[in-house]
Amino acid sequence: MTPRDDELLFLALGGSGEIGMNVNLYGTAGKWLMVDLGLTFADSDYPGIDLILPDLEFIEEHRDTLAGIVLTHGHEDHIGAIPYLAAELKVPLYATPFTAGLIAGKLEEEGLTGQVKLHVIDRDGSIDLDPFRVTFVALAHSIPEGNGVLIETKQGKIFHTGDWKIDETPVLGEPSSEETMHALGDAGILALVCDSTNVFDTEPSGSEKSVHDGLRQAVETAKGRVLVTTFASNAARLQTLGKVAEETGRRVCVAGRSLDRILRVAKANGYLLDFPEPITFEQAMMLPKREVMIIATGGQGEPRAALGRIAQGQHELKLVEGDTVIFSSKIIPGNEIPIGRIMNGLSDLGINVVTTRQLHIHVSGHPARPELEQMYRWIRPQIVVPVHGEARHMREQAKVALAAGVPSAIIQKNGDLIRLSPNGPEKLREIRTGRLVLDGDVILPADGATMNQRRKIGYGGLIAVTLPVDGTGALAADPLIRPFGVPIEADLADFLADATDAARKSYGDGSADPERMRETVRIAVRRCATLWTGKKPVVDVALLAVG
User: Fold this and answer.
1) In terms of Cα–Cα distance, which of 78, 146, 134, 90 is closest to 116?
2) Upstream peptide bond of 422 is cis (omega within 30 degrees of 0)
3) What is the 3-state secondary structure (H, E, C) of 167-197?
4) What global pTM score does this model have?
5) Quick one: which of 15, 271, 17, 276 has its CA closest to 146?
6) Other CB atoms closer than 10 Å to residue 288's CB: what's the count?
7) How far apart are CA 90 and CA 151, in angstroms?
8) pLDDT tens digits for 464-515?
9) If DSSP codes are grouped into helix, strand and coil, which group holds residue 183?
């Protein structure tokens, strides 16, 4: 799988067919280049798990051909897997200053400072990673220093957008001008690898500056304390909220480690320098309610984030009837239930809840259809490769690109090895990809024995069966049955009697092979549980030798 000198390849190991966990590879002349190394967040399909990582088996097997890892921006779905996986790849990281600051903090937390080389590249800077030349191209997004990357090879040029939008009045930073983007197209772009998230939106995403008036109105009309929750990484929104707080005579209190980190790194890199000095939790609770604005994490319903703990009364900051919570963020698909749970809990407490349905208080950081069409006009690629979206998003972007006059588009998914040049685009083969889970401090396959067993236990419960046996192998006493999470509360005594009888009869006289007897008992007890409950719990059988 070493790329030939006369070809240019693309391979997504994450982020295609899903929103999150972005990992993209480009290959030519015997080398691979990685763009982004992100993670995604677990849902109910992964009990006990918070973080999901990409399986990098393919590139780990070819790590001697990996030239480096280029990071487009600092969102978790683009850099979050670095502290868990980058050390194994043993290649340098390249990022602009703000993103590098976030990465450095992650590496320090994991004790990896110095073990992973991190190179800070100037905005609009270039690096030579033979056979690739990579230039960072500033684009607007919801985090400082969003970048596309221009990847130049002998087989053609690629513009990989990362996450982006068009914002003519950005609150932070200066994205590339129309002239700069048009010049990229003039240079000749073989392939545009492009964000698909908002392709179904027919109206432009809107400028960050436009949310100021809606947020000010929401804060001005609030009678008690105000809590605003937004994406921690949205530094532009923090800038707006800081200004609104000053305009409405409120002091700012920040709740959430990720918010603290963003503020610290932003200020270290010249952003948010005029953000009000935050007050402590104690000061926030002592001030008159109308003089406080809390900015908190947790707008996606995360129970352990600041808002979730505040809503449950488990935080130093307290909200009471008449206070207001403003959700200055959109609902990420899949988070509807936990967000609704928090909103309902706040309403039960008499707290006013304000969302984007009442006021214009959020804009997306991703391009809607008109912005995609504008990008095609600027870049004029020969090929569009949709990424960063579920299957429906990427298929729709391919349709939009072709309708806009792009000569070719290819719909791919994680693991599809695509030849862009020569005579591309063409799918060559499928590479095995997958997911890993971070379970405590251990990284495991998402579809491995541990997770599969945990899902089964979560669905049907667990029954532990202990068989006390004497020296001859015969039962020395009745089997001990202990159910966990099996729905037999009302009939527990009767069920235990029935299951004990089933275990005893299936064990027999103990003359058979011990492993065969264990399996026979396991099947008998599970069958008994199924008859009682309709469930098929995990049954574990142990033999206990007694004197």
Assistant:
1) 90
2) yes
3) CCCCCCCCCCCHHHHHHHHHCCCCEEEEECC
4) 0.91
5) 271
6) 9
7) 21
8) 999 999 988 889 999 999 999 999 988 999 999 999 999 999 998 877 788 8
9) helix
